[in-house]
Amino acid sequence: MKISIVIPIYDEEESISTLLSEIKEAIDPHFDDYEIIAVNDGSKDGSMEVLRVEALKNSKIKVVNFRRNFGQTAAMAAGFDLATGEVIIPLDADLQNDPKDIILLVEKLNEGFDIVSGWRKDRQDKLVSRKIPSWIANYIISRVTGVNLHDYGCTMKAYRRDILQDIRLYGEMHRFIPALAAWNGANITEIVTHHRERKFGKTKYGISRIFRVILDLFTVKFLLKYSAKPMHFFGKAGIYLLIGGFISGLIAVFLRIFLGMSFIITPLPLLTVFLMLMGVQFILMGLIFEILIRTYYESQDKRPYAIKEKINLS
Questions:
Q1: Which CATH number do you get for residue 87?
Q2: Is the same domain home to 32 and 151?
Q3: For residue 196, with 0-12 CB atoms within 10 Å meaning exposed, 13-18 middle and 19 or more buried, which class applies?
Q4: DSSP letter for each residue of 216-242
Q5: How far apart are CA 180 and CA 169, in angstroms?
Q6: Does residue 141 contact residue 178 with C-beta atoms inside 8 Å?
């Protein structure tokens, strides 16, 4: 089995050599066929120079250099696209992930799973700025997606290559890969992995990242539930709005006939018109998205299903 280790890198000059050495020490006794794909995500320090030197010393180290900073998700997507291994394992470049856990992830994957997620149970980060927001985010993501993991934010996970082939990553979507893969029927589990204190530099994550994650979560929820049937989302909202408009109109008529209240002094007629128009618009949006979805699938010869195995079929 060949494994591909993907490392997104942004301003981690001091950590790179140590990390690559630890990876080699951890997996050399277990794997002859492996590759390390380091993606330099527009670093402003000397990270790229260090990577050049390391790549010259070890042909298993492959380097991708972005023209500018595109973000962690884009860096991971590039690594996934270029990986040739049957198993792909991303990990952070800041030395907080322990490369020795790579073996544990692969062993668990070989038990029949498609994805093994790392769980930083004893996380070595600040409580208020990192741990608490992470706990809240993991709870919300698990509830919304239906895929219960303790640590969506842990970069260190093991994926079977075929699981990643049909997943396209945008925004901050890399943390939602297990949820997106579960939609295609992936078998997912998690194991406890080691987490170490940051030795060099400073974290690239801040509270502002939470808002981007929340917005991406809305996208993931829509993709998981309604991407193949958008009319069920927009049509349902449209019907609710039409019903609300109808009820509002009935109340306005009741007040006019039985209580003599003029339409002018109550906002109900205006609310009725507003809700009715919004309801019609949502239904029309649903029809438009249905056409777009069909165009998407048919123009690329895509199928709204994923086949895991074929027997006696070409």
A1: 3.90.550.10
A2: yes
A3: middle
A4: HHHHHHHHHHHTT-HHHHHHHHHHHHH
A5: 10
A6: no
Residues 175 and 236 in one domain: no
The overall pTM is greater than 0.85? no
Residues 267 and 155 in one domain: no
pLDDT tens per residue, range 223-257? 778 877 888 889 999 999 999 999 999 999 999 88
Of 226, 258, 276, which residue constitutes the final position of a domain? Answer: 226
pLDDT in tens, 200-227: 767 666 566 677 777 788 888 887 788 7
Interatomic CA distance for residues 245 and 127, integer angstroms: 48
Residue given tokens 């709204």 in the structure block: 304
Q: In what order do the strands lie in the sheet with 87-90?
A: 61-65, 34-40, 3-9, 87-90, 157-160, 115-119, 188-192
Q: For residue 280, what are the domain limits?
A: 230-299
Same domain? For 144 and 277 the reply is: no
Domain shared by 237 and 219, yes or no:
no
d(CA 236, CA 221): 16
Q: Among 181, 186, 193, 132, which Cα is nearest to 157's?
A: 193
More confident residue, 262 or 47: 47
Asked if 181 and 253 sit in the same domain, the reply is no
**Residue 44 near residue 14, CB atoms below 8 Å:** no
Number of domains in the chain: 2
What is the rounded distance in angstroms from the CA atom of residue 292 to the CA atom of residue 298? 10
Same domain? 221 vs 234: no
* The last residue of a domain, from among 191, 208, 226: 226
**Cα angle at 168 between 164 and 170, to 5 degrees?**
130
Picking from 51-60, 148-157, 218-227, 257-266, which range would have the lowest pLDDT averaged per residue?
A: 218-227
Q: Is residue 50 part of a domain?
A: yes
Cβ-contact 78, 149 below 8 angstroms: no
b or e along 218-257 (b: 16 or more beta carbons within 10 Å of the residue's beta carbon)?
Answer: eebbeebebbeebbebbbebbeebbebbeebbeebeebee
